[in-house]
Design brief:
With 461 residues, the protein is an all-alpha fold. It is built from 19 helices and no strands.
Length: 461
């Protein structure tokens, strides 16, 4: 008896593509989470320094990350349109863009230092924060190149190799953190420097795995990779046109997120510790969902390239259903086990700052459960709009939402001098309002009429 093939864009197809990316994103979250957890065993100031310094380093490269990250959708569209040899050309151009923009990123380093110096942070946090930021920034080409190759495999639907690379990166990072942050097995305790080394070494190991897979003979032959190492003005233009809005959106996201972190941190060590713990768990709840976003972006791109918006819609609904299952688990943890989650960051030795911050962190976690179930739908709809090419609208809405959050938080904490709890509620309220606008845009259906790839011959089946 023959098995019924999976419906195009159905739950099974979406799960096969999404699950490895979700695991990959969970591994990336674990890398950041592990670094901060190990540092929290030393003292809260180092954990806070890794939070602010790490987010700032990500913010500095976020435009190019978003720009070349659009390679996933572009590769998927070329694959769906039947132009396999164009897929590796996209990745080559993404590498070129990374190399071209990176010197500009380094030139902006003094601006980050100026922001740090003007936030009036305690020296116990400021100096290690600058050190962590510097190490990550100078090694930023490693994760950027890794992201380019991951976009290729996500775009063609071979996401298991991305998952393997991320798992290896996570394990290498955890091992180096164990050795160099805390100083086990005779290794020196390097503290926050060891955490930064662990992050970069882990990312380099993931890059190596992706590179080996990319250059395998089977892959080289199928996609004609060895003929792709040249400049293509056509592909560069497409990446810049459709990827720049995504890059600007990502830059805005990290810049505003960094502003939120620094506003909380400028309110004193207790508020900084509570907010850092909350934002760490918020990252755990949100980042794995980006796996569903990437999967939906890839599937929507592929089906839009093949001129099948009905199958693209099926992928979106499937991605949303699967994302909700994950979100329910997070909802239960935030509502019923917040104290347990907060105590994971308890220092080895008693610490007054942590004890004072603990009640606020617990309250923030419970409040976060208000928006947890909307997260999955939000990222899936955004991924669908990007995959179809509606990147400018997604950018405009996201930037407006990000900075509305910053203004609301700054107004309540720095002008009205209200509590951090009130500030956190304002962020949640803004998110829910803009989630409604994303839903409206998606169901208006204009994205179904967009075409990035112009086919000059019958589309391959």
């Amino acid at each position: 008896m023959k098995m019924t093939p999976p419906m195009e864009g159905g739950t099974r197809e979406t799960l096969v593509l999404a699950l490895p990316i979700v695991v990959s994103q969970a591994c990336e979250t674990a890398i950041v989470f592990t670094n901060r957890m190990f540092l929290s065993e030393l003292n809260p100031e180092l954990m806070n320094a890794a939070m602010a310094g790490g987010v700032t380093a990500l913010m500095m490269v976020s435009f190019v990350t978003g720009l070349v990250g659009y390679a996933t959708a572009l590769v998927a569209q070329y694959l769906g349109a039947g132009y396999k040899s164009k897929c590796p050309e996209v990745i080559t151009q993404a590498f070129f863009l990374c190399l071209a923009i990176y010197p500009i990123v380094l030139a902006c380093r003094p601006l980050a230092y100026a922001v740090f110096d003007n936030m009036h942070l305690a020296s116990e946090q400021l100096e290690p924060q600058k050190l962590y930021f510097d190490i990550l920034l100078f090694g930023a080409l490693i994760p950027l190149f890794r992201g380019c190759l991951a976009s290729f495999f996500s775009g063609i639907g071979r996401t298991s190799i991305v998952m393997i690379a991320s798992c290896v990166a996570m394990l290498v990072n955890a091992g180096i953190n164990y050795l160099l942050v805390l100083g086990h097995f005779g290794f020196p305790s390097l503290g926050i420097r060891g955490a930064a080394y662990g992050a970069l070494t882990g990312s380099a190991s993931g890059l190596l795995i992706l590179l080996i897979a990319y250059l395998r003979k089977k892959n080289r032959t199928e996609f004609n990779i060895m003929q792709s190492f040249h400049f293509s003005s056509e592909v560069i233009r497409k990446l810049l046109r459709y990827g720049s809005p995504t890059g600007l959106e990502m830059f805005s996201a990290f810049l505003s997120y960094n502003a939120i972190v620094l506003i909380f941190h400028s309110c004193g060590a207790v508020t900084a510790t509570a907010a850092t713990i909350m934002l760490n768990w918020d990252m755990v709840s949100f980042v794995p969902l980006i796996g569903f976003e990437i999967a939906v972006t890839s599937l929507v791109g592929r089906y839009m390239g093949a001129r099948r918006p009905d199958f693209a819609h099926n992928s979106v609904i499937s991605g949303m259903k699967l994302g909700q299952l994950y979100s329910v688990i997070i909802l239960v943890l935030f509502l019923f086990f917040p104290a347990m989650l907060v105590n994971i960051f308890r220092p080895t030795e008693g610490n007054d700052i942590f004890l004072k911050a603990q009640p606020t962190a617990i309250w923030m976690l419970r409040a976060a459960s208000i928006y947890i179930l909307t997260n999955a739908a939000f990222v899936v709809f955004i991924g669908a709009l990007r995959g179809a090419g509606d990147t400018f609208w997604a950018m405009a809405l996201a930037i407006t939402a990000h900075w509305t959050m910053v203004v609301a938080l700054a107004g309540l904490l720095k002008v009205a001098h209200l509590s951090p709890e009130a500030g956190w509620l304002s962020i949640i309220a803004v998110f829910l309002i803009f989630f409604g606008l994303v839903c409206k845009r998606y169901f208006d259906g204009k994205w179904k009429t967009l075409h990035i790839i112009e086919t000059h011959e019958p589309v391959a089946s």
